[in-house]
Amino acid sequence: MNLKMKFAAVAIGAALGSLAFNASACSTVIVGKDASATGNIIIGHNEDNGGRILATQYYVPAATHKKGEMIKFEEAAASIPQVEKTFAFYWAQTYDPTGASFSDGFVNENGVTIATNACTGIYEDDIMPTKDGGIGYGIRRLMAERATSARHAVDIAIDLLSTYGYFSEGRTYTIADAKEAWQLAIHQGNTWVARRVKDNEVVYIPNNFMMDKVDATDTENVIVAPGMIERAIKNGRYKPAKEGVYSDFNYRVAVAPAHRRSADYNYSRNNLAWNKIIGENITDAEKFPYSATPTKKFGVEDVKDLLRTHEADIEKQDKQWLHTNSLGICRATTHESVVFEMNANPLLITGYRAMARPCETPYVPFFPLARPAEGTSFMDPATATAEHFKGTPERFSYRSDWPVFDFVKVANVHEFQRQDQKDNKAFVAKIEKELTKDMPAVAAHAQMLLKVSEAKAVEYMHAYNVRTFNEAHAAMLDRLADVAPHTMTVMADSIDPKSEKTVDVVLFSGDKFDATKADPKQTWGGVGRASIGNKITMGDKLAQPVKAEARDVNGDGKKDMVFTFTQKGLAQNMLAGAMYDIWLHTYVNGERVALMDSAFIETEGYKGPAKRTQNADL
After folding, report:
1. HEC secondary structure over 376-418
2. In the sheet where 502-507 sits, what is the strand order?
3. Which of 29, 101, 130, 505 has the most CB atoms at less than 10 Å from its CB?
4. How far apart are CA 175 and CA 215, in angstroms?
5. Measuring CA to CA, which residue among 293, 350, 440 is closest to residue 43?
6. Roughly what angle, to the nearest 10 degrees, separates helices 439-450 and 454-483?
């Protein structure tokens, strides 16, 4: 989960910084191999963040490093010695203007797969100090670079925690390979429990610590930070049933108050998830399980379905966006979703990634270690690494030639055009079926090619990654042409986010579309739904026009609708210094219509490119 970092001045050894908590956050599901329909461990994860987020994917090659080389991620975090050799890995980056310490996902060449959930609201009197600023992003990145197995990754993380301490409030790391899955729940400082997920279990976790009773005497499957149980006893948060025997240690009760588990943004997801996993409608937050053994086997499609889950009445909850009030597993801030099925051969690990909310866009199949399709990123891995905490505003510009934006457009259109929801679900199901139908055959052929040449197999699988991504992208363009065929234009190359001056936004009429029937009182302009947080309504976060006028703007003999906005209002929630996708939401003859164009958001003394090159009319 991406938490915006606001580093305060700190002394060496003190806790580093503070993090703004976004309650609209991630979900992770783990299916043990004996609970899996295929006999393989399955990991599913929704990544949720608010703000200007770009989700990119890379393959980072193995590397050799100079002796004495040091690594530093966040500016105020500790510098860490680099190892001589690092493994190659697939990297799903959450690219954020302030730097994302806690969102990225990884699959390394040894099959070690990593996803995480923020777990905040800990007891402050149990926070331990860090050393040299502590560690944050480095935990996940160094596990990906160095781990030979899931268990080895846990050891790497524990060593880093023991040396530097964790500067974030709390988080649960999910770490898996073909043989086993582990969860490492970390409390700020050097307080943690690592637990191996049992083979017959399904685990679900939202954004609170869920690990309850763990048998600390089972040293093969449970590892507890030194001194943590003793502190919990001293603080009155744990009393063992038998003195000196810690087989019933409840981690979540020891480190966080009950109100965190019952908070609506966690409660609702737990309720929905366990209803699907075990068929029980649990209403007491303290009775939500950490794990369960389901009566049926879970496959990839079941995990996808779980990650798409909403409240039963989501479409009746509000009169604005589909997810305005939703606190489901899939929600407004879900900007990507992924399912991984482990394999004894890491190259044959299969992934299914939705480039936007999974209820509105398809999961695209791919082999993560065969390199993602080039269209999934717009930088090379080295640049992306160097700029992860140093991205300049222009990097976050709307790019009409970056295919991922078209997936986001589809999600944003359907977020408002709720009349199209039923048809879109059918469309997504059809596309997914077409995309995945030959994946078993591709995997089988790749396995045969591995006997001849790993390079040949990788190129074959990479071609599959490219093909499925391109086919999915083409489907997104077709969908946009079908459900968003109209045109709007922002009548300016740039917008001053501090100006009370006005700018016109024109909705054009067509042969079968009368824009003058648009209702100015039900019209809003500004950012798309993927760019702001949950529970935000149009009325308080998007601008409404100060004037509306029907006139023929393009001289085709048809009157268009011209909405006049203040520049300041239209640009609110936008990042100055970037080209932005600017959305218009309106009702025409009572039917919802969503469209977009782009314009540069000015910074002091700079109005953007001299010539506009990115007009992205829908």
Report:
1. HCCCCHHHHHHCCCCCCHHHHCCCCCCCHHHHHHHHHHHHHCH
2. 488-490, 502-507, 560-566, 547-551
3. 101
4. 20
5. 350
6. 160
Kindly list the distances between the CA atom of residue 461 and the CA atoms of 216, 341, 365, 457, in Å, as whole numbers in the listed order: 43, 16, 11, 6
Beta-carbon count within 10 A of 48 CB: 32
Task: Return all residues near 49 (Cβ < 8 A) that are at least 6 apart.
Answer: 1, 2, 22, 25, 94, 96, 100, 103, 333, 335
Taking alpha carbons only, the member of 256, 157, 272, 241 closest to residue 210 is 256
Query: What phi-psi label fits residue 377: left (phi over 0), alpha (psi between -120 and 50 degrees) or beta?
Result: beta
Q: Are 100 and 415 in contact (CB under 8 A)?
A: no
In this structure, is the dihedral angle defined by the CA atoms of residues 472, 473, 476 and 482, taken in order, positive or negative? negative
Looking at residue 77, its amino acid is A
Question: 268-279: per-residue pLDDT in tens?
Answer: 999 999 999 999
Q: Who's near 450: CB < 8 A, 6+ residues apart?
A: 345, 347, 457
Which tokens is 391 given?
Answer: 């991205």
- By the 8 A CB rule, do 599 and 495 touch? yes
Closest CA to 78 of 6, 34, 138, 30: 138
Q: 120, 116, 106, 114: which is closest to 48 by C-alpha?
A: 116
Residue 23 CB-half CA count within 13 A = 18
What ranges make up the beta strands (E) of 143-199? 166-176, 181-189, 191-197
Cβ density class 359-392: b for 16+ within 10 Å, e for less? bbbbbbbbbbbbbbbebbbbbebeebbeebbebe
135: which DSSP letter? B
Predicted confidence (pLDDT) per residue in 551-585, tens digit: 999 999 999 999 999 999 999 989 999 999 999 99
Residue 93 · residue 3 · CB < 8 Å: no
H or E element at residue 266: helix 264-278
Crossing angle for the helix pair 137-146 and 150-164, nearest 10 degrees? 140
- Tens of pLDDT, residue by residue over 287-316, are 999 999 999 999 999 999 999 999 988 877
Angle at 112 between CA 84 and CA 380, to 5 degrees: 65
